[in-house]
Amino acid sequence: MSYDPSPSYPYRPPDPPQPYDPYTYDTYPWAPQEAPEPAGRRPQRHTALGHHSDLRVLRSAYRWQRRVATLTALGYFVLFLILSAFAPAFMTSTVTDGLPTGLLLALIQVPVTWLAIALYEQTARRRVDPIADRIRKHAELDAKREGTR
Fold first, then answer.
1. I need a surface site. Which of 30, 102, 108, 124 has the fewest CB within 10 A?
2. How many CB atoms lie within 10 A of CB 146?
3. How confident is the model at residue 26 (pLDDT cuts 50, 70, 90)?
4. Distance separating alpha carbons of residues 47 and 14, to the nearest angstrom
């Protein structure tokens, strides 16, 4: 499976060190510091999109969707390969007149692939698309709010 190494929060580099002045120093460094002056900007009422938990939910829903579709198609193919390697008597037995079981199982791989595609689309419509639509709407609202400032 794939791993998304990007953090769910934006990277903020550390503040640059203050220049050293040998003539000024804290008499009591353990004393509480004065609170900095607030910036002239309004505080946000909601979290920024990069911190939003919906992105993590979307990422996990998409991972689940890929796993289901991949395991459906690859699982059947691996089963076919294992039967071919370890059960040659079963694979060469005939189902009907002149149709061996191995050929029938090989032909069934096409509908299983279609089933994997259908599962992928169904899970996309049911689980991934609603989350993506919600994130898209939040992003549009955030863009409108930033445009009016």
1. 30
2. 8
3. low
4. 21
User: Token pair of 17, please?
Assistant: 């060190």
CB 112 within 8 A of CB 72: yes
What residue has token string 């979307």? 58
Question: What are 94's strand-pairing partners?
Answer: 100
Q: Which residue type sits at 108?
A: I
124 or 147, higher pLDDT: 124
The pLDDT tens digits of the residues spanning 4-17 come to 565 555 666 677 77
Say if residues 71 and 113 touch (Cβ distance below 8 Å): no
Question: How confident is the model at residue 15, as a pLDDT?
Answer: 75
Residue type, 76: Y
